[in-house]
Each structure stands twice: as C-alpha cells, then as structure tokens.
Amino acid sequence: xxxxxxxxxxxxxxxxxxxxxxxxxxxxxxxxxxxxxxxxxxxxxxxxxxxxxxxxxxxxxxxxxxxxxxxxxxxxxxxx
Amino acid sequence: xxxxxxxxxxxxxxxxxxxxxxxxxxxxxxxxxxxxxxxxxxxxxxxxxxxxxxxxxxxxxxxxxxxxxxxxxxxxxxxx
Amino acid sequence: xxxxxxxxxxxxxxxxxxxxxxxxxxxxxxxxxxxxxxxxxxxxxxxxxxxxxxxxxxxxxxxxxxxxxxxxxxxxxxxxxxxxxxxxxxxxxxxxxxxxxxxxxxxxxxxxxxxxxxxxxxxxxxxxxxxxxxxxxxxxxxxxxxxxxxxxxxxxxxxxxxxxxxxxxxxxxxxxxxxxxxxxxxxxxxxxxxxxxxxxxxxxxxxxxxxxxxxxxxxxxxxxxxxxxxxxxxxxxxxxxxxxxxxxxxxxxxxxxxxxxxxxxxxxxxxxxxxxxxxxxxxxxxxxxxxxxxxxxxxxxxxxxxxxxxxxxxxxxxxxxxxxxxxxxxxxxxxxxxxxxxxxxxxxxxxxxxxxxxxxxxxxxxxxxxxxxxxxxxxxxxxxxxxxxxxxxxxxxxxxxxxxxxxxxxxxxxxxxxxxxxxxxxxxxxxxxxxxxxxxxxxxxxxxxxxxxxxxxxxxxxxxxxxxxxxxxxxxxxxxxxxxxxxxxxxxxxxxxxxxxxxxxxxxxxxxxxxxxxxxxxxxxxxxxxxxxxxxxxxxxxxxxxxxxxxxxxxxxxxxxxxxxxxxxxxxxxxxxxxxxxxxxxxxxxxxxxxxxxxxxxxxxxxxxxxxxxxxxxxxxxxxxxxxxxxxxxxxxxxxxxxxxxxxxxxxxxxxxxxxxxxxxxxxxxxxxxxxxxxxxxxxxxxxxxxxxxxxxxxxxxxxxxxxxxxxxxxxxxxxxxxxxxxxxxx
Amino acid sequence: xxxxxxxxxxxxxxxxxxxxxxxxxxxxxxxxxxxxxxxxxxxxxxxxxxxxxxxxxxxxxxxxxxxxxxxxxxxxxxxxxxxxxxxxxxxxxxxxxxxxxxxxxxxxxxxxxxxxxxxxxxxxxxxxxxxxxxxxxxxxxxxxxxxxxxxxxxxxxxxxxxxxxxxxxxxxxxxxxxxxxxxxxxxxxxxxxxxxxxxxxxxxxxxxxxxxxxxxxxxxx
Lengths: 80, 80, 731, 221
Ligand SMILES: Nc1ncnc2c1ncn2[C@@H]1O[C@H](COP(=O)(O)OP(=O)(O)O)[C@@H](O)[C@H]1O
Ligand SMILES: [Mg+2]
What we know:
The complex is a heterotetramer, with 2 copies of chain A (80 residues), 1 copy of chain C (731 residues) and 1 copy of chain D (221 residues).
Chain A: E1 2-9, H1 16-27, E2 34-45, H2 51-66, E3 72-79
Antiparallel strand pairs in A: 1-2, 1-3
Chain C: H1 6-11, H2 16-26, H3 32-41, H4 44-47, H5 52-55, E1 65-67, E2 74-77, E3 82-90, H6 92-97, H7 99-115, E4 120-130, H8 138-156, E5 160-167, E6 176-186, E7 201-206, H9 216-219, H10 240-254, E8 259-264, H11 269-281, E9 284-288, H12 301-306, E10 312-317, H13 322-331, E11 335-343, E12 347-352, E13 355-361, H14 362-367, H15 396-404, H16 413-416, E14 427-429, E15 436-439, E16 446-452, H17 455-460, H18 462-479, E17 483-492, H19 499-519, E18 523-529, E19 533-534, E20 537-538, E21 542-551, E22 568-572, H20 583-589, H21 601-616, E23 622-625, H22 631-642, E24 646-648, H23 656-661, E25 668-672, H24 677-687, E26 691-697, E27 701-704, E28 708-711, H25 712-728
Parallel strand pairs in C: 4-5, 9-12, 17-18, 24-27
Antiparallel strand pairs in C: 1-2, 2-3, 3-6, 4-6, 7-10, 7-11, 8-10, 9-11, 12-13, 14-15, 15-16, 16-21, 17-21, 19-20, 22-25, 22-26, 23-25, 24-26, 27-28
Helix pairs in contact in C: 7-8, 7-10, 8-10, 10-13, 15-25, 18-19, 18-21, 19-21, 21-24
Chain D: E1 3-7, H1 14-25, E2 30-33, E3 44-47, H2 61-64, H3 67-77, E4 81-85, H4 87-94, E5 101-103, E6 111-119, E7 135-142, E8 146-148, H5 151-159, E9 163-168, E10 187-191, E11 197-200, H6 206-210
Parallel strand pairs in D: 1-2, 1-3, 3-4, 4-11
Antiparallel strand pairs in D: 5-8, 6-7, 6-9, 9-10, 10-11
C-alpha cells in the first residue's frame, strides 16, 4: 500500500517561496500568473498494511512529523 | 484558470530529504514505512488564459524555471 | 557478455594506442567492467597524463612541509604539534551543467579530501569565474553556484571565509568553480592512503552507492560541445547532512588507532580509491561487490565500480577492529560494510554473485598510465604598456566611479553574506579583506587564507601571470601580518592537445615555480582541470592559487580598514605606471592590451618582509596590497572599510593616472600613527625598500591634490550596488 | 549554575555554545546526545544552532521529535531555563514549547551578517545586561529565520511581553527596512509566558554570546 501526502501552507501564511517563484515567472515574461503557492508532496510505501488502518496510520505520521499544523494543511491519498 | 505542477526527483536520483524523513518515521515507530520520496507542488493562478494555451504555457514555465530537468520530472494538471 | 568494439573503446575515451596498452597489460581483451576501470584510471582527471611532466617541476619541499603532493591533501607544520591540511579542487563541468548540485558536491568533495587525512575542516574558500555579466546564463549560474556552496558548507558547519570571483567572456560556456578547504589536525595523527597488512579488512562507510554520475570523471575531462546539456543525468546530488555525520564518525574513529589507511571516494569512486590505496601500498585488494551497500537494485559491477555517489569512504582497518568501528558508524546512522581484504597478489580482484567481475594487475595499470609530453608553443608576451603610452583621463572622479562599480572590483558582499562565515566562532577576519583569518581554536595562533589569480595576466603572458598569481597570494597573506607557508593550486586550462594551450600551461607552471622558489613557498597539493573549452574556444588560463600563512600571535593581525583620522599614508614599493592589462585600460579605454605588470620576485620578497616586520613591530595601523585597479582603488577600499576618508598629495614623476591606476606589483598601502612616521621611514631605508609618504587619513571623502574630490557615499553606492543590481535585474 | 547542551546529528554550533557557556560560567556544560532519554541535573538547557538532521523536511522538525526533547519540554514546563538559538528556535517552535513557526527568509537566501536588535522586554532570567529599549548588535546566520505567528498569537506576544528582540537599526528603529527576513512584526526572538524559555534567530559567536551572562539571575546575553 502506498500513500501520497500533500502539504501546503495555510491560507494567511505568507509563502516566501511561492512569492519568489511568482516574481521570477514575471521576470521571464509570464505576466498573467499570480497567486503562486508552493507545497510539498511526500510519497510513502506503507508496506503490508490493511487498507482500513492505512489512513489513520498516515494521519498520525502527519500530525506527529510530516506537517506543522501551525502553518500547514495536509491531505492524504492512498494509492494501491 | 489554475494549474498544479507536481515535481519529483527522477528515478535513481538521491533523495536526501526522503531518506531523512524515512529514518525519522522509523524512529517514531512507523517501522513498516519505506521508499519515502519528497517532491514539490506548485499551484498557480494563470489569470485569463484560454484553456488551449494553458498547458503549453505551464509546460514552458516548467522547463524554464519550475523544474530542474537535470534531476527532476514534472507533471501538469489544469484545474478550473 | 558485451563484446568490446572500437566504438565502445572510443566511448570510453581511450585512444587506440591506449587500448593497445590495455591489451598488452592484460594479455587478453578486457571485459566491460575492466574497460570502464581503465577508462577512468587513465582519464585526464585521474592520471594527469598531460600535466604530470610539468607538475613534477614545482617545488614541494620546505622544513615545515609534512606532506606534499601525492596524498588527498597537503600538510604543513604550524607548531605546537599541530598541522594545517589543505587542498583546492575544481568542479567546473558539473557546475556548468547543474550549478547548485555541481558546486555543492564540489565543496563536499574537497572537504572529504581534508578530513580523510584526519583534519577537522576549519575553513572553506571558493575561487569562481563566470562569463560576461550580461551573458544570458551568467546570473543563473552565479545564483546557483553561490547557493550550492552555501547550502553544503553552511550545513557542514564549516565557515566559508573567502574566495574570489571574476567575470569574463572567456568563461561564457565554461565557468570555473574551485573550492578549497583548510583543516586542522594533530601533527602526529595524520592519516594516509597506502593500504597495508595482508588480510586486513577493506571497509566501506558512508552513503549507499547509486547510479550517480557514472562516467562523471570522464565527463570532467571531455571538451564541451553544444549538446553537452544532454549529458545531464551524470550530475550527483549532494547530501551535506550525511557528510556531516561522516565527518564526525571518521574523526571519532581516528581518535582510536584502528585505521591503517583511509581514502575518500571522489571522482571515479570505488575504482580510483581502491586502486590508489593498493598501488601506494604495493599490495592487492580483493572486493566482494555483493557487500557494497547499494541504493538501487540490479546494479552491475561496472556501475558499482564507476558510480560517483557522494559521501563515501574506503578504509583499511587493523584486524579485529571491525566491531569497534562499526559501532561508531552505526551510532552516526551510517552504512558500514566489510567489502573485501588486502591481498599479496598485487591484483585487484572483484567478485559478484560468485563470479569474477574483474581481475586486473594493480601496479602495471597505475605505472602504465599514459604520460604525454604534449607539443607546446610559447605565448609571446606583448610589449609593456606604460602610462606615458596611455592618454590621461579628463576626470579622475568619473574614472574612479566607473572602476569601483566595475565587474572586476565591485563588492562581493552579495555572495559572502550567503555563506556562513562565522560558524565555529574563530573567524577573526571576515570576507572582504586581503585574506581571511581563522583562529586555531583554543590557541593564540591563527591561519590566514587567500585564493588569487589574475587570468588576464596569464593569458597575455603565462609565465609572468603564473608568478603573479603566487606572488599575489603571498602578498595578501603578508598584508594580514601572517608568514606565508605554502600553496595549493587548481590549474584550469583549455584543451591541452592544442599547442598554444599547452604552452599556456607550461608557461604558468614555470612562473609559479620561480615564485615559489624565490618566496620559499612550496606547492603542497593541487588539482588540474583541462579541456575547459566550448566549440574550440578556451578559457583564459587560470592557475588559481590558494595560499595559507601563519600568525603566531593573532593579536597582531592587521586589517585594511583605516583606523581613524590623521594617520599617515604610505605607499610601499615602486610605481612605474604599468598600464598593460589593467582594469583601467579595460574599463576606460575598452582595451585588453599590453604586457601584464612585471613581476620582480626579489622586490616582492623584500617589500613583503618589510611590511610584515612593521606589522610585527606594531607600527602599522592598516595594510592593503595594491592589485586590480591600482592605488586609488586600494585606497578607496581602505576608506570604505574604515568609513574614514583620505587626503593625498602626490608629487610624482609619473603621469598621475599611472600612479593612481597602474597595476605595478609588489606594492602595499600602509598607514601609521603620525609619531611612527620616522620609525617606518628608517626601517624602510634599512631594508632598502621604496617608501613614499602620500597623505593622511581624515575628511569624509577622498581628495587628491586639486584633481579629485569625492565623497565616500558616492564610492560606496557604486561599489556595493553593482552585484545586487545585476542579480536582481529582471531576467 | 549547571548547564546542558543538546546535541543532534547535524548540530554544528554545539561547540560554539559549549565554549560560550564555559567562558561565561567558568565550567563546562554537559553535552547531551539526542537519543538520550534523561537529562543530567541542570539549571539551563541550551539548544544550539546548526542544521539538525540537515534541516530536511522542515527546520527543526525531526530534531523536535527526538527522544531527549520530550524530557526538555517536561523540564521547561517545570521552570528549567531553556535557551534556544537559531536552529534551536526552530526546534522549540516545532515541539510547541513556543508559539509560531519559522519560514524560509523572504529573500530566499541564507543570511550571514551582523544585525541590530532592539531589546523589547525585560526578563528576570535572561537579558541581564540589557534593558528594554537598548539595541544590541549580534550576528545572524540562518536560512529560515522568518518568524510567523497568526494574529491571535501576535496579540498575545505583544500583550504579555513575550517579544524579546526585534530587527532594528542602530538607533532602535523597527520598520520594514530593518526587517531582514520577513518576520512578522520584525520579531527576532521570543519568550514563553513564564519567561523561562528564550529563543532567538540570531546565531552569535561565543565572544558575543558571552557578553551579558551574569551568573545565576541573568543568563546568556
Ligand atoms: N597542480 C598540482 N600541483 C600540485 N599537486 C597536484 C596538482 N594537481 C594534483 N596534485 C596532487 O596530485 C594528487 C592527486 O590529485 P587528485 O587526483 O586531484 O586527488 P583526489 O583523488 O583527492 O581528487 C594530490 O595529492 C594532489 O595534491
Ligand atoms: Mg581525494
């Protein structure tokens, strides 16, 4: 069982990386672009785990380590 | 028109971040996890752009700036 | 099994005659793995086949040299049972292809060379050459290279304390990234790479092996062409965190006596490290490749042997010490594997899955490495160009503003503020001075470190340029009060198969040799990077020199900043008005012409020894050597650093522009308190040194006679803004 | 007074911190490995700067989850003094000992230079040699020093005197121009409510850090 965790900054948290990318895109002539946000994606192989446990397991990984809920949201997708 | 670009390391390219995360997850008792890879996700608002142009526009952004095609792959999703 | 065709041999960069030599040594055809091994071992990068003949002519000895060229890095004695270990290395081609990772892994590689020998790295330097500032790739390369150096060095916790940066169109398609590391060790606990002890275990530690940079070593020696961007996947990704762990683990193990020999895996990875260890020890090695920690499945012996995965080391341990060593590496969460043993066969035997993957004689392969005496032609130096041959400028102020904001002279702060230059808490002279100074932790001593080279001089006259590069490092160390000890070098040139390029190489070496001899300043390590050309156009010859000097008493360290108002300003050394190849000529007249300034090594030595002696006698209050841009640029730099102006009265036989902008060598600007003027004057007489009192510090700008008056703000503005403006301008 | 310095894999200012404490207290602190589960008896816990775990994932995140940190959090809640510098600041926010989080510097670059900091609050444990309103000059060396806290937290920080330092100029002016890295309200360092935890984004060579350590009552700077 595999999982993909997508982590993005919460609304209202200024995103310096996103802003820098936006600025650079404008510099390259992509003028229409705005509201650029950068996030992270973490892919995991969960090994042999029952599907019904997988979601809660990954949820625990997120709250304990993968995401900082002060500034980040996360979403989990299970892939098999 | 919005777009989401997902950037991941090419197969075989060392992923120090993924390795460290995997190690930390083991330390927290998530023993079954392996093959952790970290990638990036970039969300963009393309403004008023015709759907038929959007894909090629984002493609150009990827090759010129967003992805480091030496070591990274990218994929593009258009959302509206 | 793959048949070895002509094409395969050519792809491996071996010439026909080289391949015949392979057949002769083996008495049979090699298999692919063996061919791969020959190819990397005999590449320019590993074998120094074009340069060896000339490198041998460099002076490498002095009473304070503990280990000269031939090991991972050179070692000098700095007293009290301590040694400084240093080397410089290039990562040019990888940095052009992928600037961040290329530069980062360059820094990682040179640090490994230094800690392999038992030293804790205490300072990093970097010598960078980029293309024309307006070239479309330049900014991307500058920002990537600087970020890569910063990313790796900062994470390692080793301060990056200095370096140099040039911009010139000759580097448009071939940037140079040369990294230097200085480390500190106990003189009686230095580690070498010669394998010994038949039956001793061969141990692999560090990161796992992946398919990184396979053929990187051959790539680094192959000339670029337009489709070089296709070669991208050979770039490695650096993992500074793992290297930091590797450093700590190695130093911990080195504190025991378990290690017989140790060698980092750099270019050509497991191949060159194992062959070098076996060859130096005159022994054989047997490796079981199944034991090599691997990151990917299905790796072949060829891939394992040629992988350039970073952050790995090979060691020979004393028998029975495996468990103790393993415990240390496991504590640091690193791989540790016994992968083979030392044998008395004189052969390198590799097995995998029960089969022999390669069986090669060590010494013949190493001894038979090609060595070429490539044809060369001498560069004829142009005639000198003196100030009388150059029209005087109408407005000195306009000239000064132009020079201070020019690519060669503008402040590099934008770069070094991205480097952690303070970590470890011993940086007592930060970037921006003549040389960085780093205290030897817990002592009164300090090391001064600099890198220098003036490629435009080397291009015009390789011999004089080679000597000048060495002399300039010596002068920069001297300006801090340090006694210069030794140098490392990084010889960056074009295609040696072209006689004029080979002639540049030979000329530079000749000049370096003379300077090293005259200044008592041997070469203890170095690196050669050839084939730096794109579509047949070579770079400027660039023998980057890294110099290290010792301050016995760090409290005597001198800086270039003016220390206050009312101090007397002297010029040490004679000014004849040498305008050839000067920044003035380039920026104001748009010409790169004439001979570079003459290098008089005896004068260099005499003047430097004098400057050092007045620093030691504590009568000098600020010292700066005069180089790019000449006297007025050096004066401006001293004024900006101290935020104190100066008033200069010049009575000179020369044209004023010759005095202000000539790049005559062996000169320094020195200040003193007014009561010490007599003493300094007498000392100079005694030493037979040319000394000229030219003015006093004070005022809030610079004044010369009645021909120049400019505020420090005006100078500062152009000086500090050029690079940030370049880097932030829209792409 | 006894001190302990926590060492993580990748810490690189642990020696700097040790030297600073040694020079100030006259005796060496204990060095405590991240994998340990117990602290020696100590009055001050120092979390040094550097790149714990390479700063991979998020700065300080992996270190924040190491075994010894559970113990540090517990001791801190019982009133032991904690000084968290640079990477230590990130570790402290990651464990929740302090509010907020640190983001990448607004200019995306590592910044290594001396900066002026305005001393914003008086504190009975730390800042012994400075008083509110002073400016002090310290080096910074960080890539992720951009402090973030939401609106509510910011109000609390201001209201309860929890802001230790703000990026300023030499005259103590705090404004957008003196904000080197994009931190909210120019915040460079904060205390917890009780005032026994201080974290700041400055690095500090031993020499600079030593200045201001005056015995038991006022710790470090
Ligand atoms: N230009 C040079 N001048 C002096 N010594 C050199 C020079 N180039 C290489 N050397 C020495 O030759 C040895 C091999 O260098 P190199 O192959 O670059 O080392 P490594 O295998 O660590 O990369 C080193 O001891 C180095 O110091
Ligand atoms: Mg080496």
